[in-house]
Amino acid sequence: MAAPVPPLGSTRQAELYRAGIAGQKPPFPIVFEDLVRAAQERMTPEAFTYVAGGAGGGDTIRANRAAFDRWRIVPRFLRDVSQRDLRVNLLGQTLPAPVLLAPVGVQGIIHKEGDLATARAAKALGLPMVVSTVSSHSIEDLAAALGETPRWFQLYWPADRDLALSFVRRAEQAGYTALMVTLDTIMLGWREGDLQNAYLPFLHGEGMANHTSDPVFKKALLLPPAVNPISSMAHFLKVAFNPKLTWDDIAFLKQNTQLPILLKGILDPDDARKAVDFGMAGLIVSNHGGRQLDGAIAALDALPRIADAVGDQLTLLFDSGIRRGSDIFKALALGARAVLVGRPYCYGLALGGEEGVKFVLHNLLADFDITLGLAGCASAAEVTRERLHMI
Ligand SMILES: Cc1cc2nc3c(=O)[nH]c(=O)nc-3n(C[C@H](O)[C@H](O)[C@H](O)COP(=O)(O)O)c2cc1C
């Protein structure tokens, strides 16, 4: 299916300004900081802290943003940028823009429809969705909601290889076209805010849809999850994350699937080179939005180092801190083929379900499109490191 081309930024601007003539303001905040505040008012304090918060004292979250601020865009002029093409090719698929919805688990704590609403928004915009292992709806239900929209499955490699393979088979059968193995969450980070709130969504039965619907997971239980949810939760906590993970597991996965594999969370060029050796299709340079290791290198600081090491050998993606169009521009300029967006769409989800997610992502694409043109680029391919200056 040809991916729908989103309206250019100027179309979106015109829509929003024209509504003002009729006295209509946008239904949700456009200013990112106001969006966060509005979402905070709508969510429970526990859910908001879980989404917005990070590891330790939030140092990595701050570093992620500070890294963007150090790079400034150097525009070029007089280059006819009236026609702009946001499309990119990723693993053989043409996407309408270099933006994917990052895997975000437990979306049921954000909105009652959870990731089903997110999937509908992704479908409306034609943007790929990466479905989390700890999603609030199952691999299969989300595939049905996404229809023809490209979808990838994010794997938290469990402490049970049979369960890992069962997830992979289910994803293959449900039409997911890539696997994204998250490496940075072999255990949960020390999250001060969540610990203070004594709040972990899984202990409230959230984020277990893929596990409780899985034949291998269910076989390990004495009673079905519906009959004994407590023992099902205890088993989930035992197997969900796996600090024993090594490159052997990646080799095993590679032998057991035809799907392209991307590793999420790579920050070191040597790990990136190793990923090439192990036949990986791509990497996501990411520090999990600062939720895992406090004091970690900003993901944007890691990006050019990794691009220099392996950028021409596999597909490089980026996340952690994308908030506005200029952030997407900077990540592309530093070597990413596309970016993943996490928290921004969660805030849209909190405020307006499917409509809220669409609103946030549509504006982000429009902002990126305008940024592209004002920087003197007519396509994502023209965004190179020469367009940036470090201060
Ligand atoms: C509430 C929440 C849940 C997340 N769940 C997952 C997950 O299940 N799997 C995963 O690989 N990453 C998960 N992430 C990390 C995102 O995929 C992504 O790396 C991060 O949000 C990007 O940073 P940003 O929020 O600054 O855009 C989660 C992030 C948030 C905010």
Map the helices and strands.
Elements: H1 9-21, H2 32-42, H3 45-52, H4 59-70, E1 71-73, E2 88-90, E3 93-95, E4 99-101, H5 114-125, E5 129-131, H6 139-146, E6 151-155, H7 161-173, E7 179-182, H8 192-196, H9 209-212, H10 215-219, H11 229-239, H12 247-255, E8 261-266, H13 269-277, E9 282-285, H14 299-310, E10 315-318, H15 325-333, E11 338-341, H16 343-374, E12 388-390
Parallel strand pairs: 4-11, 5-6, 6-7, 7-8, 8-9, 9-10, 10-11
Antiparallel strand pairs: 1-12, 2-3
Helix pairs in contact: 1-16, 2-16, 5-6, 5-16, 13-14, 15-16
Bound molecules: flavin mononucleotide.
Flavin mononucleotide (FMN) binds next to helix 3 and helix 16.
Written overview of the protein:
The protein has 391 residues and is of the alpha/beta class. The protein has 16 helices and twelve strands. The strands form three sheets. It has an eight-stranded parallel beta sheet with strand order 4-11-10-9-8-7-6-5. α6 links the parallel β5 (129-131) and β6 (151-155). The longest helix is centred in the C-terminal third of the chain and has 32 residues, at 343-374. The chain is globular and about 70 Å long. The chain starts with 8 loop residues before the first helix and ends with a strand. Bound molecules: flavin mononucleotide.
Q: How does the overall form come out from the CA principal axes?
A: globular
Mean pLDDT: 96
Please give the number of β-strands.
Answer: 12
Q: Which molecules are bound besides the chains?
A: flavin mononucleotide
Order of helices and strands: HHHHEEEEHEHEHEHHHHHEHEHEHEHE
Q: What percentage of the residues does DSSP assign to strands (E)?
A: 5-15%
- The helix/strand class is alpha/beta
Strand neighbour order, sheet with most strands? 4-11-10-9-8-7-6-5
Radius of gyration: 20 Å
Biggest sheet layout: 8 strands, parallel
Number of distinct helices: 16
> What is the CA-CA span between the terminal residues?
43 Å
Unreliable sequence segments? none
**Percent range of helical residues:** 40-55%
